Amino acid sequence: MAAWYHRASWGLAKALYAPSLLMSSHVEASGLEHLPEGPFLLMAGHANYLDPYVLGALGRGPIRYMANLEGVPPIKAAMADLVGCYARRKGASDMASLRKTFELAASGDSIGIFPEGDRSWDGASVPIKPGCGKLARRLGLPLVLARQKGNYLARPRWAAKPRRGPWSVDFSVFGADEIARMSDGLVEALIAAIVAKDEIKEAQLEGRRFEGEDSAEGIGLLLWRCPVCGKTDGLRGRGDVISCQRCGSRWELDANCRVRPLNAPLSIHAAEIADLKDWHDWQVATLPELAESEERGFPRLRSECVRLSRREGASARSMGFGRLYLRGRGEGAELVFEGGSSRAVFEAAYVRGFVDNFNAFSEFDYRGQRWRLEFGGDNAAKWAFALAGRSGVAA
After folding, report:
1. 127 secondary structure, DSSP code
2. Quick one: fold of 4-206?
3. Which tops the pLDDT comparison, 266 or 347?
4. Top-confidence residue, 96 or 276
5. What are phi and psi of 14, to 5 degrees?
6. How far apart are CA 351 and CA 177, in angstroms?
7. For a disulfide at 123, which of 26, 199, 262, 356, Cβ 3.0-4.6 Å?
8. Which CATH class is domain 288-387?
9. What angle do helix axes 4-16 and 51-58 make, rounded to 10 degrees?
């Protein structure tokens, strides 16, 4: 059973903040009547930092969320504990958090997990983490799956400001006995099918509309390549306008993530890049080309003024600032850092668990050591996709 202070803080937050949160976020829910009275396992897609708060506000009792607390300020970490969150290590296996999950379930707590592991960059689902089906079966709790629409467009991961529009949550409930009769693989497929979405495209097809101001602010965290000149790391957003600092091309971006060229050639965009999903898919597909081509003697897949540190327990040993680049592809690809007096080379095939923490810093594992990268507010998303192997660059 949840600790008394978790129940008290949840009850206070629900009474004071839940109505205004759900109203301001334009949240509508279906299937609430089917939610179990007792403890359950909740799984949902993750695209908005408010997801746990919205889902918690709709429930009948406190939910203990498995959450990433690395890099969270101490005060916020303390508040997270107060409302029932417990820490997990993002982007890597964490046996301590897994043991904690089973302990909480055994004590009668409801558990909340986002099986994709992180917020979506482009509003589309990513493969759920392996083992989610097995975990759901082993916990022995009813499984509640929440399909969300509108949470990404309400505030994209990269966006500086929220937008206004419909956010819906549809709950599906499967009994513990029903889950126990399924195989691990079938449960995993069920989870993936229900939480899956491609929000930018689906919102356009379904006629859901969002409104907001300064829709392009923060776009440099998502977009790294201009489709007109092909240059990287020159895209900026101001107000509702995306501009390329390299060639001067400009686009208008609305709150539904649709793109309209202002002075860029229409032939490039009419059918190929109509929205940010198209743009993002295109730039991810070009990552191998960037890794294999050079400009001024260095691969075009690079970032400047990056700080590299090696984690040593709770602290980090800095190797200073320098250039980060990825050379080659497949088994022979190398991630290279070159600073003023230091150099580090990582075989890309052994880079594991690359994650971005709150657009503040990124980390990855390499042969038993944890490394941190700080991009100083510049784009880190391209490295998450290149090093995850989704581009075909790394194994």
Report:
1. P
2. Glycerol-3-phosphate (1)-acyltransferase (3.40.1130)
3. 347
4. 276
5. -65, -40
6. 40
7. 199
8. mainly beta
9. 90
Please, which pLDDT band fits residue 66 given cuts at 50, 70 and 90?
confident
Distance, C-alpha 273 to centroid of its chain = 22
**Quick one: pLDDT at residue 394?**
43
Q: What is d(CA 39, CA 364) in angstroms, rounded to the nearest whole number?
A: 34
Tokens read off for 212? 């907001």
The answer to whether 370 touches 377, Cβ cutoff 8 Å, is no
Angle at which helix 199-206 crosses helix 276-285, to 10 degrees, equals: 150
Torsion of CA 175, 177, 179, 183, to 10 degrees: -170
> Could you tell me where in the chain the CATH 2.30.29.30 domains are found?
288-387
* Mean pLDDT, residues 72-88 taken together: 69
Q: Which helix (H) or strand (E) is 235 found in, with range?
A: strand 235-238
- What's the average model confidence in pLDDT over 114-141? 93
- What is the C-alpha separation between 2 and 391, in angstroms, rounded? 43
The residue behind tokens 């501009």 is 243
Residue with tokens 């990269």: 158
Show the DSSP H helices in the chain as ranges.
Answer: 4-16, 18-24, 51-58, 74-82, 95-106, 132-139, 151-154, 176-180, 184-195, 199-206, 266-269, 276-285, 287-292, 381-387
Helix axes 184-195, 132-139, angle to 10 degrees: 110
Q: Within 10 A of 278 (CB to CB), how many other CB atoms are there? A: 20
- CB of 235 closer than 8 Å to CB of 216: no
Counting residues of the chain whose pLDDT is more than 70, the rounded percentage is: 90
Statement: residue 391 has pLDDT above 50: no
Residues of the chain with CATH 3.40.1130.10: 4-206
**Least confident range of 23-27, 176-180, 310-314:** 310-314
Tell me the two tokens of residue 179: 């889950």
| pLDDT score of 91 more than 60 | no
Measure Cα distances from 244 to 60, 238, 267, 381 in Å: 48, 11, 18, 18
- The DSSP result for 297-353, as a single string, is TEESSEEEEEEEEEEETTEEEEEEEEEEEEES-GGG-EEEEEESS-EEEEEGGGEEE
Place of tokens 């997270």: 80
Whether the pLDDT of residue 1 is over 80: the answer is no
Q: What 3-state DSSP class applies to 161?
A: coil
